[in-house]
Amino acid sequence: MAEYNRVSECVGVITLRNPPVNALSAAVRQGIVDAVQRALSDPNVKSVVICGQNGIFCGGADIKEFGSNMTGHPLIPMIHAIESANKPVVAAIEGSALGGGLELALGCHYRIAHSKARLGLPEVSLGLLPAAGGSQRLPRLIGVPAALNLITTGRHVTAAEALQLGIVDQVTDHNTVDAAVKFALSVAGRSLDPRRISTHPCPQQPDLDALFEEVMQKVRQSARGAIAPIACVQAVRAAATLPYAQGMERERELMATLFTSGQARALQYCFFAERAVGRWRMPSGARWDTSKSRPVHKAAVIGLGTMGRGITVALAQTGLSVIAVETQEKQLMEAKQAISGMLERGAKRRGVAPALDGVIYSQNIQAVADVDLVIEAVFEDIALKTKVFQQLSAVCKPGTLLCTNTSALDVDQLASETPNPELVVGMHFFAPAHVMKLLEVVYGPRSSPQAVATAMQLGKKMGKASVAVGNCRGFVGNRMLKPYIEEAFFLLEEGATPELVDQALEEFGFPMGVFRMSDLSGLDVGWRVRKGDGLVEPGTASGRFARIRQGRRYSPLGDLLCEEGRFGQKTGRGWYQYDKPGSRVARSDPWLHSFLGAYRAQHGLVARRIDHQEVLERCLYALINEGFHILDDGIAAGPEDIDVIYVSGYGWPRHRGGPMFYANMVGLAKVLERLEHYQQLHPEVPHLQPSSLLRRLVASGSPPIHKWGEAIKKLHSQL
Ligand SMILES: CCCCCCCCCCCCC/C=C/C(=O)SCCNC(=O)CCNC(=O)[C@H](O)C(C)(C)COP(=O)(O)OP(=O)(O)OC[C@H]1O[C@@H](n2cnc3c(N)ncnc32)[C@H](O)[C@@H]1OP(=O)(O)O
């Protein structure tokens, strides 16, 4: 797991070998310890180089080991042994040096990086801190402010930035190991004392207390309840104020708290879930590893409203050539200007040239004749979309993939309007499409595995968390959102305020509560859907029956607000009030409170005290319950798919792992018991009726989340 060779007579080269990322498993740690020992005891060896095989230095500690009893040689003494070696040790960094990988490099006396390498201490994103001395060495090397930035955000830096910060000593465009060996030869025999970072004091920093106070305040605000970023600040503070040995002790104490925390489990689950969703499978048995994607060189977007513009930018930024079609000249010109602006701003942020020439604008759908894939993003109207699909089928070359960005319409129905339904899939982007990470790839019963593979591949290329899901109303994300929003409306009827509901959800970790979120996305969106579903009834009927529609409890509160012209932020009024239309600062609105009072009086509802726990249980368990229905229906292949969708697209706090992971943490029996409790109180609310899958999982002993897949298969086979 770590290979040792002697090169150029007197340089010992230690190569980490643990594909795919050379993680520091027990075997690798032991291999390094043994190899260092060999190099130091060989009188012919004057210096040592540590590198990784296959163009990657090291992706850090082996995260899979964190869930088990960690055995084997510990990381910290291993790194100390390297730092205290009496021969120079040079890290040759190619690919990535992350987490424990960078901590290992910081224990070396010198670091040489390839120009394309990326370095970072991303432990915070796994609910941890750099606890192999990273929180103590990095501030000593690059100063407190820069180290705080890197450690609390976990961001990866380029080799150029690492050089500028002083993390690496040299950057090369050539073979890194050769450069490191040459360098190691040149420094053999030099004094190593100044190169042992742990012996340095932290660079002086004026007004240290004020700096830490300011950073801590910022971190608390953005952490939304996550504990690791705060522990990271505390650890760096120890580096700045304590001798190294005491700082290490503090680092260990803080890590001990984080290591066994539910948040660390949740964040590490997210890490693996994000990778697991790439290994998609369909109920037909088609899978990621047996379905070949088609190359996409040229794509088209039809309809350049907000979504179409964002999709065009996302596609163009991957280097694809894009035909952007909008039939109205004025809209086309406006879209061109907006898209160019977005491309320019994005390119500036990323330090690259804007892909302006990659987009060709046209008013004529014939322009898409030779593209490999089209994404339709016209208005959400089935007749219009059907017409577009029929035109595309006539215009496009054979084999062109036809994708719809619909969020609410039936992908199967659209597919059935084309001569080649196997070429049709949904690509459900989230606004703004060039920013939001999530992409639901929606397959119907007739979508070909190749079409799904191509859309998933394209999503990956665009940097999206792409999740393949089956076709149903609302797909996965919006389908689960419906009971969540409905419960929030019911809570208002029963005595809550938008402020109370939002506060409970924001304290849970959502960036925005349900009402602030509705104001942002526009109340008229849901109104239009409810109208289409025949749920909206005009008039002022009162009493219980006025709140039953299609046989189930219904709250017309959202409709009534829309009738008042309160569409949210864009009209300056919604569940909150805003200084002016478009303004973002939500303020409590006395009008809304008296409106709620009058509504309750009209319907004979007596307001009662509702606490945060009830808000969370009713909104979140209703959403989770729908997630179980989705799993039972086979719309999502596993809980990871649902969790990735919620964490990357719906603001579910990552440190709580996603709704299904959260249910697993709370305990399935408890979720079931609370749903039963609320269902008894509200028998006219079907979404509180526990899903049969949840019941069956509890009856089968509540298996842990990684065993749900197996359990679901077994339960289905027993049906
Ligand atoms: C009682 C309490 C006691 C407490 C005390 C405990 C003391 C313990 C002390 C230990 C101190 C440890 C301190 C160090 C901690 C760490 O190092 S944590 C890990 C930090 N590293 C990372 O976060 C990097 C994670 N990896 C990546 O970002 C990327 O994988 C990559 C390296 C940039 C490569 O990207 P890419 O090429 O796109 O490949 P991927 O698809 O992401 O990955 C390929 C597969 O590799 C798996 N993998 C990646 N990294 C790791 C890892 N570090 N460990 C295990 N596995 C890893 C990844 O999951 C992929 O596999 P699949 O999931 O099977 O697809």
From TrEMBL:
It is found in: Peroxisome. GO terms for cellular component: peroxisome. CDD domains: crotonase-like (cd06558). The keyword Isomerase applies. Its EC number is 1.1.1.35, 4.2.1.17, 5.3.3.8. Residues 298-471 form the 3-hydroxyacyl-CoA dehydrogenase NAD binding domain. It holds the Pfam family 3HCDH. Pathway: Lipid metabolism; fatty acid beta-oxidation. InterPro entries: 3-OHacyl-CoA_DH_CS (IPR006180), 3-OHacyl-CoA_DH_NAD-bd (IPR006176), 3HC_DH_C (IPR006108), 6-PGluconate_DH-like_C_sf (IPR008927), ClpP/crotonase-like_dom_sf (IPR029045), Enoyl-CoA_hyd/isom_CS (IPR018376), Enoyl-CoA_hydra/iso (IPR001753), NAD(P)-bd_dom_sf (IPR036291). GO terms for biological process: fatty acid beta-oxidation. Keywords: Fatty acid metabolism, Isomerase, Lipid metabolism, Lyase, Multifunctional enzyme, NAD, Oxidoreductase, Peroxisome. Its main location: other. Residues 474-578, 615-701 form the 3-hydroxyacyl-CoA dehydrogenase C-terminal domain. It catalyses: (3S)-hydroxydecanoyl-CoA = (2E)-decenoyl-CoA + H2O; (3S)-hydroxyhexadecanoyl-CoA = (2E)-hexadecenoyl-CoA + H2O; (3S)-hydroxyhexadecanedioyl-CoA + NAD(+) = 3-oxohexadecanedioyl-CoA + NADH + H(+); a 4-saturated-(3S)-3-hydroxyacyl-CoA = a (3E)-enoyl-CoA + H2O. One of its GO terms (molecular function) is enoyl-CoA hydratase activity. Monomer. PANTHER family: 3-HYDROXYACYL-COA DEHYROGENASE, PEROXISOMAL BIFUNCTIONAL ENZYME. In the N-terminal section; belongs to the enoyl-CoA hydratase/isomerase family. This is Peroxisomal bifunctional enzyme. It comes from Gymnodraco acuticeps.
